[in-house]
Structure formats: structure tokens, C-alpha cells
Amino acid sequence: MDAVETIVLREPWEIEPRLKELALTRKGLLEARDVAIHDSANATLFHAANAAGTFSYHSGTWALRDRFVGGDWILDRSDGVETIRNGKLKLKVAFSNVDIACNNFHIPKPRTKKGAGAERATGADLFGFADLPQYAPRPAGEWNFYYLMVDSDGAAELTRPVVKGGTFVAAVERIFLPSGADDSDKFLEDTTDTVVEFEPQIARK
After folding, report:
1. Is residue 201 one of the residues assigned to a domain?
2. How far, in Å, are 103, 120, 156 from residue 87 at the CA level?
3. Phi and psi (nearest 5°) for 117?
4. Are strands 144-150 and 91-97 parallel, antiparallel or unpaired?
């Protein structure tokens, strides 16, 4: 099977030029991260057990669109996956809550199972890479699909994953963003997220 080594970008001098190539900004991505994390803290004991993750997903998706839709970026819901899309660059970006982000030895795992639409969008037509976390199938297809991945501590990365069996099994590229421990408050931790991908209905305060 044809595989490529995962590209991991960690340093500002390599992150900023790459984000520019992707027509994204570190500032906009971190603002979307902050909105998602802060809104997850609205969950109380009287909410459903998965409320923190639900609020984070809704608001992270909203904030990603709020910061970037306009010009070449448009809202996209094809295959039932909530994204922003750049037709010129053949890019799609979605939001995902994950277990751990920005860990060199761990491919982030979504805290909700990804559907068949996400699997098709990431070009996961190969198998057998789950035991090779530093490698991924060679990219195929017209579109490049990234996720803004955020964990409950605020660590975030922009990553192009491979989805298989409802989870992320490998990554083609990972762009680490600053950890929430460095530049944000401590946030409410949620470990029981069972929200599915669906159309957000968000009422902003």
C-alpha cells in the first residue's frame, strides 16, 4: 500500500507560511477555538451529559464560518458534513472535538463518531494504517479535507486526517496551534460527548 510520512508543523516560522498557503489565519483559527471552548463552559449539571461537547461543536462550527466565510470561502454541507469550502484551493475545513491535540505520539481521536460522509471526504479508501500513526495513505481525490481539532484543555491543531471506521486513524498533515494552557483560561472538561454531526442551530447572546 502506498503511504506518505505525516507532516507535522510545530514552529511559528513554519506554521504561518503554511496557513497563508491554505488561505487561513492563526488568529481566526484560535478565535474559533476560543469560542468553542468558552461556550462549552455554559454546560451545567442540569444539562444533558453531552452538553459541553454539543455546545463546543455548535459554536466551533459557527465561529469557523464567522471568521472565514466570505470571498473564496463559502459554507458547505455536502455529504452531511458541516464545513467551510474554498473552491479555488480545493479545500474544506470542519470543526471537531478531540480527546488530545498537539501530542507528537498520538493521532487525535474525535469525541464523536464520524459518518460515512466524512470518510468519503477524506479519501479513506485504503485500510491497514491504524497501526502506523506516523504514516497515512497517499492523498487521493480532488479535495483536501482538514479539521480544526480542539481538546477540552484548549490545545488545537489544524489537521488533514484519514477517517476510517468512524474515527481518525492517521494524518497526512498536522499543524499545531498554541496550547490553551499557555494563552487561555482553564476550561470545563467533558468526557461523555456523544453529539453527532448535524446542522447547528445557534442563538448567540
Report:
1. no
2. 31, 18, 25
3. -60, -45
4. parallel
Q: Cα–Cα distance between 36 and 67 in angstroms, integer?
A: 13
Could you report the per-residue pLDDT of 129-163, keeping only the tens digit for each?
444 446 666 666 688 999 999 999 999 999 999 88
Q: Looking at the domain assignment, is residue 167 inside a domain?
A: yes
Are 178 and 153 spatial neighbours (Cβ–Cβ below 8 Å)?
Answer: no
CA distance 176 to 189: 21
Residue 1 pLDDT: 53
Kindly compute the dihedral angle of the four CA atoms of residues 190, 173, 93, 179, in this order, to the nearest 10 degrees: 40
Report yes or no on 65 lying in a domain: yes
pLDDT of residue 140: 63
Query: Domain total for the chain?
Result: 1
Helices and strands (DSSP H and E) totals, the chain: 5, 9
pLDDT of residue 136: 66
Instruction: Show the cell assigned to 70.
Output: 466570505
81: alpha, beta or left? (left if phi > 0; alpha if psi -120 to 50): beta
Match 464520524 to its residue by C-alpha cell.
114
